[in-house]
Amino acid sequence: MSTGGTDGMSLRIAGILTYGISGLFKDVDDVRSHGRDERLGVKAFYEGREFLYRLVKTLAQ
Predict the structure, then answer these.
(1) Which domain holds residue 22?
(2) Low-confidence ranges of the chain (pLDDT < 70)
(3) DSSP states along 29-57
(4) Does any domain span residue 1?
């Protein structure tokens, strides 16, 4: 679930560089936002999980 917002504005005002990234990849033609059938495919879920794991692992080195 995506919150649709971040604390980024407050951090930037304080002079802290802030970046946001979503690990959720989806078909751009499969628009389901704010609909009755909001969902993410199983394959996309696992791909996103792997992407975020690798990203955090790389950034933590």
Answers:
(1) 8-59
(2) 1-4, 33
(3) T---TTSTT----HHHHHHHHHHHHHHHH
(4) no
Q: Is the Cβ–Cβ distance between 11 and 19 less than 8 Å?
A: no
Cα angle 58, 25, 31; round to 5: 160
Per the structure, how many domains does the chain have? 1
Residue type, 1: M
Q: Which two tokens stand for residue 40?
A: 């993410």
Q: In 3-state terms, what secondary structure has residue 45?
A: helix
In a domain, 51, yes or no: yes
Read off the tokens for 56.
């955090």
**What per-residue string of b and e applies to 6-22 under the rule 16 or more CB within 10 Å gives b?**
eeeeeeeeeeeeeeeee
Is there a domain that residue 3 lies in?
no
What pTM value is reported for the model?
0.63
